[in-house]
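Subgroup meeting minutes
Present: P.N., E.W., G.H.
Scribe: E.W.

1. P.N. recapped why we're keeping a running log of single-chain structure predictions: easier to compare across weeks, and new members can see raw inputs and outputs side by side.
2. G.H. added today's entry (510 aa).
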Amino acid sequence: MKKLFINENNKQGQIKAEIYGQFAEHLGRCIYEGIYVGEDSEIPNINGMRKDVVDALKELQVPVLRWPGGCFADEYHWRDGIGPKETRKKMINTTWGGKVEDNSFGTHEFFELCEQLGCKTYVNANLGSGTVQEMNEWVEYMTSDAESPVVEERRKNGRQEPWKVDYLGIGNESWGCGGHMPPAHYAGEYRRYNTFVKNYSFDRPIKRIASGPNGDDYNWTEVVMDTILNDKGFAPEYDWYQEMLQTGLSGLALHYYTYPDGHVQKGLATEFDKAGWYRTMTKAAFIDELIEKHGTIMDRHDPNKKVGLMVDEWGTWFASEPGTNPFFLYQQNTMRDALVAGLSLNIFNKHCDRVHMTNIAQMVNVLQAMILTEGKKMVLTPTYHVFKMYKNHQDAALLESYVDGIEVIGAEDDFKVADIFESASIAEDGTITATINNISITESADMEILFAELKPEHVKATILTNKMDAHNTFDNPEVVKVEEFTDFTVTDRGVKFTLPACSVITFEVR
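Output recorded in log:
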């Protein structure tokens, strides 16, 4: 029998709610059709946001939303998306299929969406093709309450009070679609742009996020962290002055996608075999090594861990569904995605000292989405259910935990992975949440949760399990759904149960 030890007396850090963040880009049908349908749509909406999607997302307690990209961010010019919609400038979305973007979803609509969701805001600004002045004025437009021409323009467009920008990304994937820059060049550009990103309210400072590494590009992390934090190659600044302005670096973005069969031959989301399953899990679990190694570099420059590793793009990336625009990145979502989400979130929880935010790609209709839509129809994906099962971890304290009896499994020698992933946390009200994944698609696991001192009095559990390629469709939306799990025994020290193959389970214990 495997034993999951949880020491409820040893809190190891806070799991920031932002670890459960989302990402919405102007890509395919994520924004348009997926989230925003316009005020005149037959689909029920509030100020243009489709009500069914927003209501479902509220159930996840979305903590933060990143927008407008992604690669789109570095060709997005914010002035095109303000003012009367009929006069907004159209543009070609050259990155994602050449679709004409009418900019009917712009700055005001983004904040409207965040207000409906009740989440924090993460705006990714344009460093690749935009100017310093453009970024400076966008921040002023969004956050200043001054009597300035830019702010008066916002008021004229219908918004009197400034919004709160919680996070600002200064460039995106600057090693690639954001400008193909070497790391030292980007770090210099970051410093220049950041100088003119002002805090107009010192009780609501903007947290700044630099474009970080692509996967295992550790040199990028080394050079960018060294250049930004240690003034390498630049005149030194006084620390007290930066602290007074509150303009220091808050985060370094890491992007990592799970391609089970490589970046070129991705394979379909619903058609894979046993070997494909374990390749996917092995590659998803590689995020643990990435966090460890990038974290070690960051520790040298930031030993107090003030700068977060923001995994602001992650998830599965398969071939687009047949018959859809390949640039729209529309893919189905199976139990394979559910297990990738489950193990990834458990890994992020375990690294909450360095991982301060993550944003799964993406919220609706793109890549590993929470929700799929087709006209008036909407379906919740297995990944959605995992995020809902894990939401108690948000802002809870990470507890020491480990499994005795882990086995390494897989169908190919080069792709072996642990069979069990887990994490545990305790909320302010004393409720302990343990989330556990059984990666095996054939073997159940007898397991016992053992606490240090706690004698459980109240235990409840939910489970998500099905065959590996099971998924929800518009015709059959509840093939994969969360169910109550009652097949467990409460003991003096914990809980005994059998964890089914291919499953995600959540225990709540008091």
